[in-house]
Amino acid sequence: MTVQALDQERKIITFVLDQKLYALDVKYVKSIERMLPMTRVPHVPAYIKGVINLRGVIIPIADLRTQLHLDEISYSETTRVIIISTNDKEVGFIVDEAMDIIDIAPQDIESNTSTYNTEQHNFFEGVIKKNDQLMVLLDIEKLLTY
Amino acid sequence: MGMDHYLEVFIAESREHIQTCNENLLQLEMNPENMEIVNEIFRSAHTLKGMSATMGFDDMTKLTHQMENVLDGIKNKKYPFSSNLLDIIFDAIDLIEKMVDSIATGNDGKIDVSAIVEKLRGVENQGSITGSNNEIAATRTMAIENETLLGNFNEFELNMIEESINQGFQVYSITVQLSDECMLKYARSYMVFQEVQQLGEIIKSDPSVTELEKEQFDNQFIITCVSLESAELLEQKIMDVSEVMNVTIIPINLGDLKGNTNNNAAQEQLTIDEEEPIFKNPEASKAIAKIPMNKTIRVNLEKLDVLMNLFEELIIDRGRLEQISQELNQPVLSETVEKITRVSSDLQSIILNIRMVAIETVFQRFPKMVRQLSRELHKKIHLELLGEDTELDRTVIDEIGDPLVHLIRNSIDHGIELPEERIKNGKPEMGTIQLKAYHRGNHVIIEISDDGSGINSEKVLAKAIAKGIIDSQQSKQLTEREIYDLIFTPGFSTADTVSDISGRGVGLDVVKNTIQSLGGSITVQSKEMVGTQFLIELPLTLTIISVLLVDVNQETYSIPLSNIVENIMLDKRAIEYVQTQPVFRFRNRVLPLIYLQEVFQVSDAPNQDSELSIVIIQKGEKLAGLVVSSFIGQKEVVIKSLGNYLSNVYGISGATILGDGQVSLIIDCNVLLD
Q1: Average pLDDT along chain A
Q2: Which one of A33, B313, B394, B597 has the fewest beta carbons within 10 angstroms of its own beta carbon?
Q3: Neighboring chain A residues of B644 at a CB cutoff of 8 Å
Q4: Cα gap B653→B665, rounded to integer Å
Q5: How far is Cα B450 from Cα B386, in angstroms, rounded to an integer?
Q6: At B233, is the secondary structure helix, strand, or coil?
Q7: How many CB atoms lie within 10 A of CB B420?
């Protein structure tokens, strides 16, 4: 995924977690939803909050705050679920707030992420510097293996 | 119409004919004298040849052609029929099957057939002195000469002819004979077509245009044309084309056609070419007449799946409607909703029925497999198939084949003994494997039993201890049944030597997993020296089931009704303890009590009631009581998967969407009872 993107522009979606900007590659994003009633599922990791009924399809929901070892907060009006769809999996990620879709060039991505805390580090693809803003680009494949 | 469309039909029909060949060959082995069966096989082989030639699969044509020759030899008793001969024919059919598979997956179906063609030739040459090749060729030309020259018309063509005649046109059957020296047969036929088309319209050509293009015809072809011109003019024009030797034009009258209609309709159905002498045989045509015509249509499976999905949506909305009407409590609304419920229930049973397929489609591949394996292993095995017409959901049918193959291979390899050993043990020389399917309640049961050596429980135990699956301490407490269940553990294989037939590294645990993923279960019973029986229990349908909705501290769970024995209220004082396990008495049995709240880690809400609501669930002979907060009610629900991200959640087999849009998890009772 990183290799093929080397010389191409990419579109990313940015969102907020704990007042910081994060980003995901837009090509896996199916839709962005408001919070829906959830059904808890037992015997799964703590960051998987349950399943929702998204127009007749059952989709598991993970809280990105919990998965990235940030403090959990209660969901608010701005809380969004980013529905991700890869070829074999569908998951929704809960984020504090969804922001923009922006274009980035390969040189905007800095793959050295050693300044960030190590527990989060596992899910990083790189750090993006764009318009004087720093954001963390998350690796979807890594987020999806639990 | 595009070639793709034909390709689908070609693949489907080829598969049918291959299956017919296989079945009949097995029949033939038992009744080698029955020429009727040889005829059947011949007919299938011939149709395969015709179809493959039309579609341009040359290797397949070559192979079927040679097979046809050999079959002809058998029919004419040129060489004796033997099991070896049958093996070669089976091999040939296997190869044809491979080609069809290859074509179906989008390849060109090219496989080197020379080896098997050689073998077939070998049979032919060694058996016959006259060389049946020539003979066939000879009879073929004769047949053509004897032909009425009317050709075969299907219903559509007949209608067209009738129409044309009624409108005052003339319909001619034109037989064109090209000269023997003709090099560019296709070019000449093309020129003939050009000429005829200037004078009228060609409605049929025999052989077909595609075959003509490929020059797959002798020097003669028949075209049927509608024209206002006279026969003489047509003849003259066609004769003008060089290298045309002879032209015979016969005007077709309505009367001629009427006589032909019935005959042709039946033959069309079986895709039979008239050119083969075999079909002139009155007995054969009798056989054709006997086959009842089923009024069926082929439907693309995808369409059925779409239908099923739409119906599932409908069921979910129906649930919502039921809820709304209950809340509003309006008689008119409730009445309408009730009616919708009734109609959709009928609709459901029909849709589910459409998806049902007889298990025959799975069973039919086994006779050949058993025959082959038993020959390889020098065992004598009789396979008995019972209840082949038992129907199962298509999804189950698609998945159940491989586990059954595995179990049957297992029986052949490890179960049935060698003939000498069987005789020594006082058993009949011929071993029996029985495959039996039948309905029981909402389930379909498949039994695979053999009268072989059975499972040696000590051997199983020793192996399980050696493999570290259990320790010797545990082993002493196991019941016989639990010991047998060990063979389903991953990494377990009882065969002393790894053979080609079963021990391929995939064990019975894979079989068990597949069956469980279908919502079914498998158990094994065995008696040493007497035999082994595997019993597979499968749900009738997968997607819509009846469940009991229960509340567990504010969370709603669904329990499949098929697992439920009954619901009871139990006085808390009736709970006893065996060590730390809470149990209760139910009809002279002591059942374990499972608190769903604990199993599913539901947040605690102390139960003040003096009575517990209990759902008694069952799997095979095992029973247990599930403690819930309250019963909500019974409902038909659509099972949905939790998706790949959440595969294998303990105790949960799936989820469903309730009338109010909420998701309810479906409890997997099989796991809870394990």
Answers
A1: 85
A2: B313
A3: 88-89
A4: 8
A5: 14
A6: helix
A7: 10
Task: Report residue B83: phi and psi, to 5°.
Answer: -65, -35
- Pull the structure tokens for residue A73: 């907060």
Tell me the shortest Cα–Cα distance from A88 to chain B, in angstroms.
Answer: 7
- Beta strand B531-539 with A90-95 is unpaired
Backbone angles phi, psi at B656, to 5 degrees: -145, 160
Residue B562: predicted pLDDT: 82
Nearest to B355 by CA among B389, B388, B392: B392
Query: b/e per residue, B111-121, with b = 16+ CB within 10 A?
Result: bebeebbebbe
Which pLDDT does position A93 carry in this prediction? Answer: 95
Question: Helices H, strands E: what count in chain B?
Answer: 24, 22
SS3 category, B7: helix
pLDDT at residue B2 in the model? 52
Known catalytic residues of B are: 46, 68, 410
Proportion of chain B above pLDDT 90, given as a percent: 13
Minimum-distance CB partner of A56 among B313, B602, B641:
B313
State the DSSP H helix or E strand holding residue B247, giving kind and residue range, or none if neither. Answer: strand B244-251
| Predicted local confidence at residue B256, as pLDDT | 61
User: What is the pLDDT averaged over residues B514-521?
Assistant: 78
Contact A37 B662 (CB under 8 A): yes
Determine how many CB atoms are found less than 10 A away from the CB of residue A75: 16
Per-residue pLDDT tens digits for A23-42: 999 989 999 999 989 999 99
Closest listed residue to residue A24, CA positions, set A145, A139, A142:
A139
Whether pLDDT at A146 is above 70: no
Q: Which of A37, A46, A41, A39 is nearest to B599 (CA)?
A: A41
Residue of B nearest to A54 (CA): B661
Handedness of CA B144, B146, B150, B151 (dihedral sign): negative
Closest by alpha carbon to B544, among B342, B323, B348? B348
Q: Rounded to an integer, what distance in angstroms lies between the CA atom of residue B250 and that of residue B230?
A: 11
Mean pLDDT of B183-191: 77
Mean pLDDT rounded to a whole number for chain B = 79
**What residues in A contact B646, CB-CB < 8 Å?**
41, 44, 48, 51, 60
How distant is the alpha carbon of residue B225 from its chain centre? 42
ipTM, 2 dp:
0.88
B106 by Cβ neighbours in 10 Å (0-12 / 13-18 / 19+) ranks as exposed
Does residue B1 have a pLDDT over 50? no
How many residues can be counted in chain A? 146
Per-residue pLDDT tens digits for B315-346 = 888 888 888 898 898 999 999 999 998 898 88
Q: Which residues of A touch B601 (CB under 8 A)?
A: 42-43
Give the closest-approach CA distance of A140 to chain B in angstroms: 13
Q: In this predicted model, what pLDDT tens digit does every residue of B488-515 receive, in sequence order?
A: 887 776 554 444 444 444 578 888 878 8
Q: Do B642 and A41 count as a contact with CB atoms less than 8 A apart?
A: yes
CB spacing of A41 vs B665 below 8 angstroms: yes
What residue ranges define each of the domains in chain A, with the CATH number in brackets?
10-144 (2.40.50.180)
- Tokens 């962005």: give the residue: A32
